[in-house]
Amino acid sequence: MRPRIFRRIRAAGAVLCTFALGLLDPVWAQSSPVLRLATQDLPPYQMIEGDMMTGIAVERVRCALDAINVPYELHMTVWADAQLGTQTGRFDGFFVGSATNARANYAVPSETVVSEDLAWYLPLGSDIDPNDPKDALSARYSAKFATSKWQLLHRNGYNVVMRPRDAESLLNMLIVGDIDVALEYELIFEHYMEKRGLFEDQFRKIPFRRQDMSVHFSKKYTEANPLFLSRFNTQMQRCLSEIQ
Fold first, then answer.
1. Which of 4, 78, 147, 154 has the least C-beta neighbours within 10 A?
2. CA atoms of 95 and 109, how far apart (whole Å)
């Protein structure tokens, strides 16, 4: 997927709001110290409507960055590239994601941007218990590929099959019987169910746990800008109360 770039640039007492699609102008990039944040298409947190990037997480991140007057770009790309790009220095961070040991090696999480419930989803007639160890190997589990959920399933010995590229594909695999159990955030699955004209009561849902998700800023960026994270976190707390 070719990244889509949405810029917001502040300069010389004026606010220039340029949400442009395509590749970044290399001359402009070399002359401005711009915070580069990557994300993925994940409604209703991050998504593209028309030629604009929007969603709950996007609006909260913008709110905090605008308040501290930081010039920034938001890059829409695939999730694996957002994380790898932060590791390699192509991006200064990515959002939104949960805290993991792997991410802690190269990035620092912000104040929580989104807090959401994770749940297991199964067909209505299923008697599988995802919390029972004996069912971990006998059933077919999946989550979005290359996410912390996917890694959690592998780490805990579940029989993980398929590699869905997004939550919509994951839901379709559950519907057609390619998998027996899906692990996903409730709000995300509800969005795709509604898109397909389905209802939550058409599935068996078992709560798993509540998960906090943040912006993960690269250690290189936070070390070079030691006051940034505390300022961002202060404004994020305010933005959480303003943007529901």
1. 154
2. 9
Q: How far apart are CA 180 and CA 33, in angstroms?
A: 48
Helix ranges (DSSP H) in the chain: 26-31, 56-67, 79-88, 101-104, 133-138, 148-155, 167-176, 186-195, 219-224, 228-242
**Six token digits for residue 68:** 């501290």
Q: How far apart are CA 130 and CA 144, in angstroms?
A: 17
Residues of the chain with pLDDT > 70, as a percent, come to 86
Encoded tokens for 112: 């929580």
Residues forming beta bridges with residue 232, ordered by sequence position: none
Report CA torsion sign: 139, 143, 146, 150.
negative
CB atoms within 10 A of CB 81: 18
**Residue of 194, 197, 143, 151 lying closest to 169 (CA atoms):** 143
Instruction: Give which of 97, 36, 24, 63 is closest to 220, Cα–Cα.
Output: 36
Chain position carrying tokens 């990037």: 53
Query: What is the SS3 assignment for 242?
Result: helix
Poorest-pLDDT segment among 26-30, 38-42, 128-132, 162-166: 26-30
Poorest-confidence range of 19-23, 70-74, 116-120?
19-23
